[in-house]
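Design request, tokens follow.
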């Protein structure tokens, strides 16, 4: 069956509602970070995957800097460096800081910009909205890995639907 999408359809979700959806995911991911015993957050892995702390640092490196690039137009190289000092509290504080940064930057993106094409970090080309969906999808993906780790450690993860 061949279906086409009309170009001039009504909006399905507002920018504000998408932000609230995203912030809900961030709240849940924060609870996953909190659920880890501190030592395991920085040392536990399965099958050669990165630790959940390393995955969390990747998430810091994408959304805030990516949204900043969308707002300012200034390209920055992708950078996963962050000294968490093997401290869960340092990671949680940075998580909160980045979530606040996301909220503030988001409000500076006009609705008409969501369809524009850009190349984030000088290497990933897509529209603003496709990049934002990547930020959300990537976080969900890594949170799922965190769920597997928590279960392997005998810890019940937060309910995925409680955002």
């Amino acid at each position: 069956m061949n279906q086409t999408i009309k170009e001039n359809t009504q909006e399905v979700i507002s920018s504000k509602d998408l932000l609230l959806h995203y912030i809900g995911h961030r709240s849940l991911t924060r609870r996953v970070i909190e659920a880890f015993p501190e030592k395991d957050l920085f040392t536990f892995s399965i099958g050669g995957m990165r630790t959940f702390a390393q995955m969390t640092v990747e998430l810091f490196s994408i959304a805030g800097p990516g949204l900043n690039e969308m707002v300012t137009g200034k390209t920055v190289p992708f950078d996963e460096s962050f000294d968490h000092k093997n401290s869960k509290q340092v990671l949680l504080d940075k998580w909160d800081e980045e979530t606040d940064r996301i909220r503030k930057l988001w409000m500076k993106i006009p609705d008409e910009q969501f369809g524009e094409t850009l190349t984030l970090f000088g290497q990933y080309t897509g529209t603003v909205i496709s990049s934002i969906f990547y930020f959300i999808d990537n976080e969900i993906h890594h949170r799922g890995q965190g769920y597997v780790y928590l279960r392997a450690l005998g810890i019940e993860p937060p309910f995925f639907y409680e955002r």
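Comment from the thread starter after seeing the answer: thanks! Strands lie at 117-120, 124-127.
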